[in-house]
Please model this.
Amino acid sequence: MQKVTQEEYDAFKLRVINAVMKSYQQAECSHYEMMPSVYLKAFNYNHKIAPIPPELFENQVCKEVAAKTICDMIEVSESPIMCFVTEGHMATVPQDGTDGRDLPRPSQLPEDQRHEVVFLHFEAKELGDYSLVFIKEVVIGETKDDFQIKLIPYKRCNELNEPSDTGANTAAGIFTNFYSKI
Model:
């Protein structure tokens, strides 16, 4: 795998964020849902976008197949940097001291206790990972065909990018740490 500099990694992040934002700006309906995708910088320095079928997110076994498929794509493309992009739900944890670990999955919570989000998880083989979450807010205009999707950065996401006491980033899950699985 080729090596990339921090500048190349940062340029890749901006390119992916711009591509994601552009897809929302070009959306033709207020219920636009992005297909989960993997953005790669392949061995020939070309940027590739690989959509992942939404059916692979229906249950845990399928999610494991999707994660393995992403690892295989990274390995075959010899990509030193990548980004996994998907939509999902983020729970709104009450301020009353409720332990967030005891909540059901965000998609199973009522709408007033969750947000629709766009999640971007960047990884570089030698430069670490970086996560970014945007809250998706649909603003409908005067006609049904006139709408705007606002992507509002989630301010606390920076906590995901801060090293913990052990020195490792706190981002964890089946769709993170792809390079360690190759």
Observations:
- The longest helix spans residues 6-25.
- The chain has two helices and six strands.
- Helices lie at 6-25, 60-77.
